[in-house]
Amino acid sequence: MTSLINKILGWMALGVFILPSCVEEPDCSLQNDKTVDVRLTITLPKADTQSIITKANRTDFNTVNDLNVLVFNTSGNLLKIVYFNSGNLGNPPEYSISPALPLNNSQLTSEITLNDLDPAYDKIFLVGNYGSQIPASVTTITQLNTLTQSAPNGIPTSAMLFAEATQTSTSGFYTYMSASLKRTLAMVTVAIDGTSLTAPSGKEIRIIPKTIKLKNVPTSGIISTSVNNISNVNATNVATGDQAIVSSWATLTSSNHITVGGHEETAIPLFQFENKQGNKPVDQSETLKSTSDKPYSSYLEVEAFYQYYDGSVINKSGTIIYRFCLGSDVTKNFDVVRNTHYRVTLTLSGWGGALEDGHISSGNLVIDGPAVDVSWRVDLSLRDWGFLQDEYNFDAHASTGYVQVLGNGNNIDFVSQSVDWIKFKANGPNWNPPTGNANFIEYPISGNLYYMYYILPWKYDPDNDPNPSLPYREAQLKVWKGSGPTQVVTVRQWKPILIKAESPSSNNLYMERFEEDGNSLAWDFNGDPLTTTRSTLSFNFNGSEVNGWNNTLYLNNKSGTPNSPAARLCMKKAGYDLTGVPTGAPLTNQQRAAFYMPSASELTNIINYVGDYTDPYQYHDPIHTDKDYWSSSAPGGAPYGTYFWNHINVGPISNITTTTTDRNLLKNVRCVYRYSLNTSAAALP
Question: Which residue segment(s) compose the domain that 507 sits in?
Answer without folding.
Answer: 499-685
